[in-house]
User: Fold this.
Amino acid sequence: MSGIYLHIPFCKQKCTYCDFTSFPNRLGFAEAYMACLYKEIEMRGKELEKETFDTVYFGGGTPSVIDPKYIYGAMKQIKQCFHLSKDPEITIEMNPGTVSETKIATYKRAGINRFSVGLQTAIDAQLENLGRIHNVRDYLYCTSLLKGENFSADVMLGLKGQTQEDVRKTIEVAVGSGAKHISMYALTPEDGTPIYTDYLNGELPDGDEVRALYDYGYGLLKEHGFSRYEVSNFCKKGYGSRHNLNYWRRGEYIGFGVSASSFFYGRRFTNTFDLDEYMKCILSGFLPVIESEKVEAQDAKFEFVMLALRTAEGISAEAYKKAFGSDWKEDFAAAYTKNRPYFETDGDRTRIKDPYLYVQNQILTDFME
Ligand code: SF4
Assistant:
């Protein structure tokens, strides 16, 4: 099974920490962009006509900022050009400052059955500092429209002045709103973003402080009946994101839109990050790919191990053997032996022990050598 990703690169304003491909002042191009996106879907349809896709994901940017008729149109085009599985998971990311009853009704008509809502924090002053366009009341309104739906809430850690009490309040708002899935991840201050100055000035919590916030948040989520299935993702039973699990299982996916990346038939390829260039390519009848490379066997093996070790299910020795014809513990013998105390094995599966999952990056460094 494979996934489809569609990138909607428009936002109302740029958040202070954002280095995603998003264009806050180009909303007027949404119609032209979406026409190109429909075209790109059609261009890829023939090549992938034998494939079955199990998930569709609208990410951004802010997919919910554009007129929902374009999301409906994109889904119609996907259904016309690709074969979807019987019960596909179809997700849209939503900014709580951009939703309405009509939008959600249109998404549901388009077949969307999963919503990912960017709460980030339940402290309004922190939302303002992040440059978010919403406040906590917007989040509560948004999720009141999603009653009974399968939705996820994003929670950020490592914010300026953030305390355990702030994290508790945020998780309680997310859980209380009915989220069945929570993504809780640490802010990464990227060079060139306004928040980087706060980082340079030592105004953001340091690594140990963020870790303490994470451990505290994880404890609360466990109390609320959420399990951790990936280092930053927690869900009620049966509500893991199939789209993301496909990435972590090194499944194939095709991406559409500016900056979208894909992994198909052993190749990784990426579209241009330039909005004008993207549209020019499509209008001239060319795919807007700027980079394409075949993943070599050793890189593929490392990717497999690295992605699987992010998850609570860990590595399946059988799946690895099926993919590469060898034993992963032998292929990575030195790194595995060095880090053996951090692993636990249960039949076919080996995973990083629960208390060490948060620091899996340090363990994985040894696997890169
Ligand atoms: S809403 Fe998301 S994509 Fe848009 S500016 Fe903020 S962080 Fe970036």
Q: What stands out?
A: Residues 11, 14-15, 18, 20, 22, 60-62, 95 surround iron/sulfur cluster (CB under 6 Å). The chain has a mean pLDDT of 96.
